[in-house]
Amino acid sequence: MEHNFKFGVSYAEQRPLTAPLPLCGDVCDAFRYAKDIGLDGIEIHGREYEFTDEQVERIRELMQNFYDAITGGQDQPESVSLLVKRALSMIETYYSQGITLEELAERLCVTDEYLSTLIKKETGISFTETVRKMRIERIKELLLHSSLKLNQIAEMVGYSDPKYMSKVFKEEVGMLPAQFRKQNH
């Protein structure tokens, strides 16, 4: 998918982006990329945005806080590459929609074999395990902080079958979702 982004330089000249924008759609990366190549503004869909280093850092902090909230504050090792960080961010965003390793690799412009190997090497768990853990954490959160029924929760986290979701949950947590809700409420 190609986007028409224009970056503005300080003397108000507009020029089309000639290099591919890494992971179009990630605003923080877009701003950081623009700053890295010496630009001080970005035009997206006809609207101009100027930004400071502080704003880019604040966006990064907010995204990190959101990630920490979802993952329970478990930090990624410092040795995790930018590609794997981006992959994990995209998995967080799209796991409930059933993103596949192949789709993720295509969006990141790498082969699925390479991405799979890199995720496993740098995080210690596979793509499938990563998706599963993110789903389980979201299920726990929904069980504790909502009165949604299991079929609703299953749909929200990307499982088409609530019985299968319950089976996976029990394998990971050691009890069924209903038991988890009852025990922790």
Q: What does this protein structure show overall?
A:
The chain is an alpha+beta fold and 185 residues long. Helices cover 59% and strands 8% of the residues. The chain is built from nine helices and four strands. Strands 2-1-3-4 form a four-stranded antiparallel beta sheet, with helices on one face. Helix 1 (27-36) runs antiparallel to helix 2 (53-71), helix 4 (101-108) crosses helix 5 and helix 6 (127-145) runs antiparallel to helix 7 (150-157).
What's this model, at a glance?
This protein is α+β, with helices and mostly antiparallel strands. Helices cover 59% and strands 8% of the residues.
Question: Helices and strands in order, then pairings?
Answer:
Elements: E1 5-8, E2 14-16, H1 27-36, E3 41-44, E4 47-50, H2 53-71, H3 82-94, H4 101-108, H5 112-123, H6 127-145, H7 150-157, H8 162-173, H9 177-184
Antiparallel strand pairs: 1-2, 1-3, 3-4
Number of helices: 9
Which sequence of SSEs, written as H and E, runs from N to C?
EEHEEHHHHHHHH
Major beta-sheet overview: 4 strands, antiparallel
What distance separates the N and C termini?
45 Å
- The class by helix and strand makeup works out as alpha+beta
What strand order characterises the main sheet? 2-1-3-4
Number of strands: 4
Percent strand equals 5-15%
C-alpha geometry: globular
* Average of pLDDT: 77
- Assembly form of the protein: single chain
Rg = 19 Å
